[in-house]
Amino acid sequence: MSAFERYLTLWVILCIALGVALGQAMPQLFQAIGRLEVAQVNLPVGVLMWVMIIPMLLKVDFGALGRVGEHWRGIGVTLFINWAVKPFSMAFLGWLFIRQVFAPWLPTAQLDSYIAGLILLAAAPCTAMVFVWSRLTGGDPVFTLSQVALNDTIMVFAFAPIVGLLLGLSSITVPWDTLLVSVGLYIVVPVIFAQLWRRALLRRGKAAFEAALAHIGPLSMGALLLTLVLLFAFQGEAIIHQPLVIAMLAVPILAQVLLNSGLAYWLNRRLGERHSVACPSALIGASNFFELAVAAAISLFGFQSGAALATVVGVLIEVPVMLLVVRIVNRSKSWYDAGASRC
């Protein structure tokens, strides 16, 4: 993990402070930026999202789909957690904490929007950072690559239906036209573009491909941080008046990470899967494709929405929480191996 990635939480906090300050100092500028839209898609954000997402998708080798069967138990657990448990558990946790526990301290008009943001965050499995988490736990690289390729393939088709279903069950109006446009802009087009670019780079050799990844990686993080500055320039007023909102939104996200990673880890152990497979399986079930979630939240609900804020809280706590999960699975290896060997 690079120093930049390790201290992502610090960079996010700095972007929050900078965004709030700029939003208060130059409100007219950011209002003008917010009006730069075509078909309900903000143009500056659209460009930033592509710069953010495409380098992530460049790392995905869809050729690894041919090796999915090599680790069928781990893949089965991954699919179960990511698509049958994770989005639905987040919808429940959002209802529990946002509508019930914290409702008296949250703005009533934003409750639905906060839950929508949490659902968007949970509906897209992690794509890029899971390679980092897997490496830190000694995860099987073939399994990690194949599960990411499979999840991204499913995401192209399942993201919109799952989000639409859960928003509907949560009594939140589903803007289907905007949702489908977001899927096209932030999933389908980037996947196609990234894979064409990947093939072109690989024709020049593995070294050229790795060098290109090293050069464009910082652009992705830079685009994310600039997006956060823009978002908090719009959210500044709400943050100033209700600073505890971020802490309250973090609670269901943290609960979801611990629930899903723990369940995936335990299921792999029960099925007798190797620790090097169980670790990345648990980690991808815990982390999120937050770049996509931020993009979709802004497109669907706007810069000033509670949904956008909720997805950014996911970015804020991603690194420290995932490092905690990494530490847990590393320290519990002897316990895991003792149980898996009996299966």
UniProtKB/TrEMBL annotation:
Belongs to the arsenical resistance-3 (ACR3) (TC 2.A.59) family. Pfam families: SBF. It is a multi-pass membrane protein. The chain crosses the membrane at residues 39-58, 79-102, 114-133, 154-173, 179-197, 209-234, 246-267, 279-301, 307-326. It comes from the Bacteria. GO terms for cellular component: plasma membrane. Its main location: membrane. PANTHER family: ARSENICAL-RESISTANCE PROTEIN 3, ARSENITE EFFLUX TRANSPORTER. The keyword Transport applies. This is ACR3 family arsenite efflux transporter. The keyword Iron-sulfur does not apply. One of its GO terms (molecular function) is arsenite transmembrane transporter activity. NCBIfam families: acr3 (TIGR00832). InterPro entries: Arsenical-R_Acr3 (IPR004706), BilAc:Na_symport/Acr3 (IPR002657), Na+/solute_symporter_sf (IPR038770). Keywords: Cell membrane, Membrane, Transmembrane, Transmembrane helix, Transport. Signal peptide: none annotated. Coiled coil: none annotated. It is found in: Cell membrane. The gene is arsB.
